[in-house]
Every structure is written in C-alpha cells, then in structure tokens.
C-alpha cells in the first residue's frame, strides 16, 4: 500500500530523534552498526574491506586465464588489433587510390575492388572459421591468421598488375577472417561475469573497426608520402609480424574443449557445417560481385544479372539448410530474439553509412582538393583522436545509461555526419563541415559497436563464442562490400552524365546522399530496440534489489501502522 504524504514527515522525525540520541551517547550511526555487527552500507561481503579492495570488487576480478594484468591488457590489445585488421586494409585502400591507379593503371571499379575483395572474402569465410575455431582451437587459428596476414600483405607490395593485387587482397580477407572469431571467442569466454572490467575490455575491442579504418589511412598515408604506396604494405607487414610474435605469449589458452591431441580434435570436424560453408561462400561472393561489377559492366549485363540472381538463390537455400542442420553456422534461433535482429539491422545500416562516407571523403580530398596522401591523413586525424575519447566514454556509460538511448544517439550521429558531408562544396570550410562530420561519424561507430558487441556475445553460450563473433563480423564485412558496390554504382552513373561532367562535385554529393539514406534508415529502426544497461556487476545488481526490497518493506510497514491507528481511532 502506498504511504500518504502526511506519513513521510513522521518517518523523518523518527530518524532525526534517533540521530540526536546517538549523538548524545557519543556513538555515530556507523559506529553503532559496527558494534552490533550489522552490515555496512556496502553489504556484508564488503564489511571491513579497504577502499582499494572495494574498488577492485566493483571493478571486477581478473579472469583466471590471465597470469597477470599486463597479459590481460596485452590480449585485449591483440583482440582490438584483430578486429581492426580488415578495416585497416580498407583505410589503406582509400588512401592509395590515386597513386595505385596511376602506377598499375587501375580503373575506378578496380580500385573499389581492393577493399571490396578483402571484405567480401572475410565475410564469406567468417562463419565457417568461427565454427572451426570453436572446434579445433582458438589460439592456434589466431596465431596462424596473424602470421599469414603478415606474409601475404608483403606480397601485395610487389604487385605488378591489378589482377595480382586483387587476388592477394582476397587472400588477405581470408587471413583476417581467421583472427577475428578466435579473438572474440576468447574474449567472450574469459569475461563471463558482467562487470566494469568486462565493459572496459569490450569497449577497447569495439574500437578496432572504426579506429583501424582511421589509423590505416594515417599510418599508411605517411608511409606513402615518404616513399610510395608499396611502402604502406611493407609497413603493415612489419607491424603484423610484431603482433604475431607478441600473440604467442599474450593470447591465453581458452578453448572449448579439454586438452587433447590434434588427431582427436580433428574428429570434431564431423560436426562442421560443410554445406552451409559452401552456400555462404558462393552465395555472398556472387551477390557482392554482382553489386561491384554492376557500375562498370552495366546493370543490364547478363553476367551481373546472373551473379545477383544465383547469389540470392544460394543465400535463400542457406537459410533453409540452417534450419535443419544440427550444428549450423548461423543458429536460426538467435534471429527470433527481437533485440538481436534489430541491433544487427541498425549496426549494418550505420556501418554502411560510415564506410561509404569515409571512403568518398578521402577520395574527395585527393581528387577535388588535390591533397597529398600525407595531407589527407592529417585532415582525417580528428577521427582517430575522437575515436579514442568516444570509446572511453562508451566503456564508462554502458552500465549506467540505457543502451537503447545509446543506440539511438549513435544512429543520430551517423545521420548528422552524413548530412554535413552531403552539404559540402569544394570551397567549404573544413572546420564548419568536415571536422564535425568526422567527429560525429566515429561517435556513431564507437557507441553502437560497444552496445552491439556486448549483446551479441551474450546471445550464444560459452562454447559458441567464436561463432557469435563470426556472425556479428560477417554482417559488418558483407555490408562494407555491398555499400562499396552501391556507392560506386551511384558515383559512376553520375560521373558519365552531362551534369556530372559540368560539376565534378556532384558525383561526390550523390554518394554522400547514399550515406544519408542509410543513416536515416538506422534512425528509424533504433528506437524499437528494448535494452536496459549492460555490464552491471552481480553484487551491484543484488545490492540494488535488496535496497529496493528494504524500501518496499518500510513503505508496507508504514502503511500497516497507519491502518492500525485508524482502527484504534474508530
């Protein structure tokens, strides 16, 4: 029963009387509670703990798989690098567009294929490699992927023609697909208990995609300016070689199985979804290839139509196959979760907006502004700085702020950035248009990736954590490939028109308007997500529940005493 308004002063007066009595006897409320052995404000478990120990308790315990905090931090950094691998290459691809096209004689469509081939192959193999990592071993696959990426990225530096470069970039996509699922799998399996510590780890990991894109443009832009575009890939080879050696110590053995010989573990391949793997590889490959070839060959081309139709048919068959196979690549039941489906849709649309606007912004700076690669990197530097700041903020508010509000805010940031890009003119002031757009764009990515990663990892059990990461990243990779095909089609179609020839800025404006449409769609879906906060420590949740139950008991007892007084008066 609710307490009447006149009852509140009575309770307050009682509390004041008790406080005065305690002061007169020389005992404070805290000292009396210690004498009587009553629990402290922080609860029985934290009674007698020092301030530092209480902070550690609320922050969360270090997972047992890490020998010390330095190894824990090192692995979180490795996981961040893993998820940044593909986006790093995307950043490199957009910063070297002009020098590569001049050196190898590549067309605009072939240049778009540099990043599209990486994202396409990575997306096609992500689910299969995610399941393999859970079955055969996460650490082994991670180190193999990092080492092979370092080797093949060096091979790109020696490309002599477009065909050479695109084939090896496709192989790099497979290498990057080998590192992301095991990294996510280990991260999800290690941090099983919700805590602020887990929030910070996942916020750092979530920064990989947007920050990889930004740092790829900056570091390789500097290398290209100082030497040539080939030096950019040599730089990547050196960096990833160091990461490979470091991973041997930093990555813990957090596997889905007990220690067993490799031959025995190979027996688990009987559970592998071979049919689903073939369907996803060819289905996604053909569909994305059709989107990418459309602008050059024409949408009425028999080849483009065949690729699109066959790709869609194979993906439809894949959906039906996953419903009947006992150990599917993509468990159908997760899509029955309304929040999961909406989060994936919102992140997909937002990522497409981010990738498209980022690519064409860098190309705009090179073609319209005629900036060198170093100057392009300098103009994009605010994204890196803002990305680090936004990510720290995201890690600190996940357990405090409603996550639906965070997703909506991220979608609005994408929309605001895209609108600013679309209003730009060749002579527009950098600080009035591009600078705030860059800040907003990376804010949308950081906030949405933090929320999405936390939720997706909780949607599947511990033994399928690598697969969960694969599902999320396959959406990201394929969306990148798809949006590059769509935006390139818009760019090419406008470029050939009389209006596009007369106004060189028009084709860029139209591509930015594609980003506006995608971001606006994400804003429409985001409010329908129903999330609270994520990452609260269990002790804090229990404390909140106990406090609310105690307050309820006080209110109830006050109401009962009021009824008894009324009965006596009658």
Short description:
The protein has 570 residues and is mostly helical.
For the structure shown, list the relevant keywords.
570 residues; mainly alpha; 22 helices; disordered N terminus
Question: Segments where pLDDT lies below 50 for 5+ residues?
Answer: 1-46, 540-556
Largest sheet properties: none
User: Could you give the count of β-strands?
Assistant: 0
Which quaternary structure do these chains form? single chain
As a percent range, the share of helical residues equals over 70%
Q: Quickly give the structural class.
A: mainly alpha
Q: What does the radius of gyration come to?
A: 28 Å
In percent, how much strand structure appears in the residues?
A: under 5%
What distance lies between the first and last C-alpha atoms, to the nearest angstrom? Answer: 20 Å
Overall form: globular
Number of helices, where a helix is a run of at least 4 consecutive DSSP H or I residues: 22
Query: What is the chain-wise order of helices and strands?
Result: HHHHHHHHHHHHHHHHHHHHHH
Mean model confidence by pLDDT: 77
Structural notes for this entry:
There is one protein chain. This protein is mostly helical. 77% of the residues lie in helices and 0% in strands. It is built from 22 helices and no strands. It has helices at 7-24, 29-36, 51-59, 69-95, 97-104, 108-136, 138-156, 162-190, 196-206, 208-226, 229-250, 262-266, 274-297, 302-324, 338-367, 373-397, 403-422, 434-457, 465-495, 498-502, 506-525, 538-569. α4 packs antiparallel against α6 (108-136), α6 (108-136) runs antiparallel to α13 and α9 (196-206) packs across α18 (434-457). The chain is globular. Residues 1-46 and 540-556 have low confidence and may be disordered.
């Amino acid at each position: 029963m609710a307490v009447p308004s006149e009852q509140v002063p009575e309770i307050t007066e009682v509390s004041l009387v008790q406080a005065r009595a305690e002061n007169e006897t020389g005992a404070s409320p805290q000292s009396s509670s210690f004498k009587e052995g009553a629990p402290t404000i922080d609860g029985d478990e934290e009674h007698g703990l020092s301030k530092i120990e209480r902070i550690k308790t609320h922050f969360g315990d270090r997972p047992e798989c890490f020998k010390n905090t330095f190894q824990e931090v090192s692995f979180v950094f490795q996981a961040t690098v893993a998820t940044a691998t593909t986006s790093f290459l995307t950043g490199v691809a957009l910063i070297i567009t002009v020098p590569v096209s001049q050196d190898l004689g590549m067309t605009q469509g072939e240049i778009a294929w540099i990043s599209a081939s990486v994202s396409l192959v990575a997306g096609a193999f992500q689910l299969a490699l995610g399941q393999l990592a859970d079955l055969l071993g996460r650490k082994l696959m991670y180190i193999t992927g990092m080492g092979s990426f370092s080797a093949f990225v060096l091979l790109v530096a020696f490309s002599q023609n477009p065909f050479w470069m695109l084939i090896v970039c496709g192989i790099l996509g497979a290498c990057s697909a080998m590192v992301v699922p095991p990294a996510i799998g280990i991260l999800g399996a290690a941090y099983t208990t919700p805590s602020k510590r887990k929030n910070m780890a996942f916020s750092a990991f979530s920064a990989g995609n947007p920050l990889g894109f930004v740092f790829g443009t900056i570091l390789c832009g500097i290398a290209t300016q100082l030497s040539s575009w080939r030096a950019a890939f040599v730089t990547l080879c050196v960096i990833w070689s160091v990461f490979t050696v470091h991973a041997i110590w930093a990555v813990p053995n957090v596997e889905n199985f007990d220690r067993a010989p490799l031959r025995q573990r190979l027996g688990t391949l009987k559970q592998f979804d071979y049919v689903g793997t073939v369907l996803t590889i060819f289905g996604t490959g053909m569909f994305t290839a059709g989107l990418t070839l459309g602008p050059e060959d024409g949408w009425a081309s028999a080849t483009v139509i065949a690729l699109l139709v066959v790709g869609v048919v194979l993906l439809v068959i894949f959906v039906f196959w996953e419903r009947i196979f006992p150990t599917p690549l993509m468990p159908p039941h997760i899509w029955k979760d309304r929040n999961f489906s909406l989060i994936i849709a919102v992140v997909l649309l937002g990522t497409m907006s981010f990738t498209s606007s980022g690519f064409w912004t860098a190309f705009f700076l090179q073609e319209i502004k005629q900036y060198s690669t170093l100057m392009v990197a300098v103009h994009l530097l605010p994204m890196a700085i803002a990305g680090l700041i936004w990510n720290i903020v995201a890690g600190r508010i996940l357990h405090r702020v409603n996550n639906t509000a965070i997703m909506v805010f991220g979608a609005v940031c994408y929309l605001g950035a895209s609108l600013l890009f679309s209003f730009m003119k060749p002579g527009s002031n950098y600080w009035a248009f591009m600078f705030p757009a860059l800040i907003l764009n990376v804010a949308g990515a950081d906030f949405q990736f933090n929320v999405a990663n936390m939720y997706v990892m909780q949607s599947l059990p511990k033994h399928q954590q690598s697969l969960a990461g694969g599902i999320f990243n396959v959406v990201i990779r394929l969306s990148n490939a798809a949006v590059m095909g769509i935006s390139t089609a818009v760019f090419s179609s406008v470029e050939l028109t009389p209006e596009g020839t007369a106004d060189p800025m028009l084709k860029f404006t139209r591509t930015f308007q594609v980003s506006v449409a995608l971001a606006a769609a994400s804003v429409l879906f985001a409010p329908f997500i129903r999330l609270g906060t994520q990452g609260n420590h269990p002790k804090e949740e229990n404390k909140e529940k106990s406090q609310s139950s105690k307050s309820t008991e006080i209110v109830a007892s006050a109401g009962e005493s009021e009824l008894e007084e009324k009965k006596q008066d009658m």
